[in-house]
Design a protein that fits this description.
573 residues; alpha/beta; Rossmann fold; pyruvate-formate lyase- activating enzyme; 2 domains; four-stranded parallel beta sheet; 21 strands; 33% helix; globular
Length: 573
């Protein structure tokens, strides 16, 4: 479902997959805002899904807005794609937040829309400001001062409840009370209070009213009931004219650094008939199909997918591939789809470190995957590594160099037999501790240490032909870690950064809040964490046990994806 191309969205050349109703006096008008540029937001299947779901509700009209291409112009307004109206004219402004580093953009958008930044400063004339998305699932506290209500959970179940509870004819406080009490997963920060110990840690987090003390995320137990795919196709995204289909949610492997393996438990895959229905819809519009999920290569019915797509003019792309899941059918699909680059994520160079992070793949499987991909006709590889992981030594960093050289040798041997040599791109990313993972307690490496490790790897691979090294910026990883593990006091840093027009060097110098306290400090296992009020089903005792196993270098078997009592998610009330 999508609005037909109008005056204000023709430049995006969007393909329509349906139509939405015109606005009416009785309709709830929602501006769905992605706090980044158009091409980033429209690459996000979650954002498109919420847009589709809202416009499918009888009395709702939803329009999209994004961070302007230029934010430093005094007259730059925040308007919607569909009608060109300012978002301040809508009943609700709904932010879809996927990444913590988009938090500053949220403030920029509110300021450009002439909406008071802080929830406590807003009154009846202002829209209700709500937010959802993965970043909010993990830890909404750093932006809790700016949001009236968070929706923590999967949108398919939450949005109808929220709309049923929305009433523009009552006071804002009464409306928020109704939402907090009636909508599962709704979190209204103003109704809760944090107190702090002398050392800066949280002493207590308590509700001030008769609202739930714990916010329990909502999730769909059976994904066969719903399909999730693109509602809009446009060339102005990372996925040029690609129809995206979600194959499942969550991941069974339990990598200890990855939040998706925990907040989306239990892992759920859609049955192939649901995927097939989406495929039939997509290929009417484009031959580019993108399969999305945390564990796409683990899709149980990959053979059925292969049989359906084989010998058709369909180009498939995959959001994630595991080195130990590359069956012949999958490689054949990649070759048929003319994929030029495949990504392998060893994440760590040594076998020891892969046990620490519970990656579950061996060096042999990584080298076999390299051989299979290049022999299968994919000329280029991208290797994804993290540096700064818990317990990492300089020997482990050296192991990244050694593994890359071994991969290059295997790559070269097979490429020569294919009579063409492609390129290997090594992507180095700084480890950031995430809430609701076994590593939520660990400290992040400081910038100086990360830069030293980066320099070591770049120097070690400098003279290796056909290998390029791409590195993220440790300073931005540090800021992400501050947001990731921050509490309500981080709102002061965000407000200051907004006043400084995004000058983070100046902001970190001027702030009275110590950012190292959030990013670089190892947490006690008994500490009350800023996000502990959210219940994703996984017990804290399970995460503690996993953290201790990580420090001992012990592995954990993948989630069996059937009812058990190990992590707590499948425990019934």
């Amino acid at each position: 479902m999508v609005l037909k191309a109008g005056k204000s969205n023709k430049k995006y050349a969007e393909s329509e997959i349906g139509t939405i109703r015109k606005g009416c006096r009785e309709c709830i008008r929602i501006a769905l805002v992605y706090p980044n540029k158009y091409h980033v937001g429209m690459s996000n299947l979650g954002f498109q899904t919420v847009y589709h779901l809202l416009n499918n509700i009888e009395n709702v009209v939803c329009e999209r807005a994004f961070l302007p291409d230029t934010t430093d112009l005094p007259g730059a307004r925040i308007t919607t794609i569909e009608s060109g109206k300012q978002i301040s004219d809508f009943d609700i402004i709904s932010f879809s937040i996927s990444f913590e580093n988009d938090y500053p953009n949220l403030l920029t958008i509110l300021k450009k829309a002439n909406i008071p930044l802080h929830s406590s400063d807003r009154g009846t004339p202002h829209p209700l400001v709500i937010a959802g998305g993965v970043a909010c699932f993990l830890n909404p506290e750093p932006v809790s001062s700016f949001i009236d209500c968070f929706l923590i959970g999967e949108a398919e179940l939450m949005l109808p409840q929220f709309i049923d509870s929305f009433d523009n004819n009552i006071s804002r406080r009464s409306l928020l009370k109704n939402i907090a009490r009636k909508v599962s997963g709704a979190y209204v920060p103003a109704f809760y209070e944090s107190t702090y110990n002398k050392d800066g840690t949280i002493r207590s987090f308590e509700p001030l009213l008769d609202v739930p003390a714990k916010i329990r995320r909502t999730y769909i137990e059976d994904l066969s009931r719903v399909s999730t795919c693109s509602s809009i196709i446009t060339p102005h995204t990372t996925f040029d004219n690609t129809f995206l289909i979600e194959t499942g949610r969550g991941c069974p492997h339990g990598c200890r650094f990855c939040s998706a393996g925990y907040i989306y438990r239990p892992p759920r895959f859609r049955p192939f008939p649901v995927i097939e229905k989406c495929l039939k819809q997509g290929i009417l519009l484009t031959n580019k199909i993108g399969l999305v999920g945390a564990a796409v290569s683990d899709f149980p019915e990959i053979k059925e997918l292969y049989d359906y797509v084989n010998n058709k003019d369909i180009r498939l792309s995959f959001s994630s591939l595991r080195a130990d899941s590359l069956c012949p059918e999958l490689i054949s699909l990649l070759r048929q789809s003319k994929v030029k680059t495949a990504t392998i994520a060893p994440d760590a160079g040594s076998e020891r470190m892969r046990r620490v992070i519970n990656k579950g793949i061996t060096e042999e499987e990584i080298l076999n995957a390299t051989e299979a991909l290049v022999a299968g006709g994919i000329p280029n590889l991208k290797l994804y590594f993290m540096i700064g992981l818990p317990t990492e030594t300089m020997d482990d960093v050296e192991a990244v160099i050694k593994l890359c050289k071994k991969i290059k040798q295997q790559f070269l041997t097979v490429s020569r037999s294919m009579k063409r040599i492609g390129e290997i791109t090594v992507s180095l990313n700084s480890f950031v501790p995430k809430p609701f993972t076994p590593f939520q307690w660990t400290a992040m490496d400081d910038e100086q240490t990360l830069k030293k490790k980066i320099k070591m790897i770049k120097h070690g691979l400098k003279k290796v032909a056909n290998i390029r090294v791409h590195v993220d910026i440790p300073r931005w990883a540090f800021i992400q870690a501050m947001f990731s593990r921050g509490d309500r006091r981080i709102s002061g840093i965000l407000t200051l950064a907004n006043e400084n027009q995004g000058n983070w060097a100046q902001t970190l110098k001027e702030t009275l809040i110590n950012p190292d306290f959030y990013a670089l400090r190892e947490r006690s296992l008994d500490e009350l964490l800023p996000w502990d009020f959210i219940d994703h089903g996984v017990t804290k005792s399970f995460l503690k046990h996993e953290y201790k196993k990580a420090l001992d270098g012990k592995k954990t078997s993948p989630c069996p994806m059937e009812s058990c009592s190990v992590c707590g998610v499948c425990k019934k009330d």
